[in-house]
Amino acid sequence: MLAGEPYDPADAELQSDRERAHALCRKLSTADGDAERADIVRELLGPYAQFAVTPPFFCDYGYNIHAAAGSYCNTNCVLLDTCSISIGPNTLLGPGVHIYTVSHPMDAQIRRSGTETGKPVILEEDVWIGGASVICPGVTIGARTVVGAGSVVTRSLPPDVFAAGNPCRVIRPLTR
Questions:
Q1: Whole-model pTM above 0.85?
Q2: Disulfide: which of 28, 117, 119, 151 matches 168 by Cβ 3.0-4.6 Å?
Q3: Domain with 111 in it: what CATH number?
Q4: What is the C-alpha separation between 167 and 11, in angstroms, rounded?
Q5: Per residue in 4-31, pLDDT tens?
Q6: Phi/psi at 16 (nearest 5 deg)?
Q7: In a domain, 167, yes or no
């Protein structure tokens, strides 16, 4: 699965891992205060997670999300972490951002088999993803890039640009 090879999401171990993550996501939604939320995020993502999350938050496994210091996830985000999602330092996810690493086969007959594949997503440092944006499997977003709200990012973006749209495209370079 992590290598991008086809896998069976109905595998008992994967189902158990997803149930654990979903239970922690529900617990996060009812947590009382920042300290309790931080503890639940560490339980979900691992002991070194430095990801501030405003619930509700949804993910498939949690342990494939690697978030650096200063990163923030606003309310209603969905991170489908079949493969690694790497979130660089000081990266901001607006409300309702969806990041997908999972993909289904294009061929209907193969898709009916239930197998899936995945590709990692990388958000480098100081990235800002505007609300309601979708980041598709295999995308890398370069350092300091800003993605406009409502964008659908199907291809990687270079550093230091403003990009927006569906499909997302570079609008202009960012200048200081």
A1: yes
A2: 151
A3: 2.160.10.10
A4: 34
A5: 899 999 999 999 999 999 999 999 999 9
A6: -65, -45
A7: yes
Cα distance between residue 28 and residue 110, in whole Å: 36
Q: Which residue in 155, 128, 154, 160 sits closest to 142, CA to CA?
A: 160
- Say whether 22 is catalytic: no
Q: Mean of the pLDDT values across residues 92-112? A: 96
Beta strands in the chain (DSSP E): 51-53, 57-59, 65-67, 71-73, 77-80, 85-87, 92-93, 98-100, 102-103, 117-118, 121-123, 128-129, 134-135, 140-141, 146-147, 152-153, 161-165, 168-173
* Rounded CA separation 158/90 (Å): 17
Q: Is 138 a member of any domain?
A: yes
Residue listed under structure tokens 């590709």: 119
User: Strand, helix or coil at 111?
Assistant: helix
The residue range of the domain holding 139 is 12-173
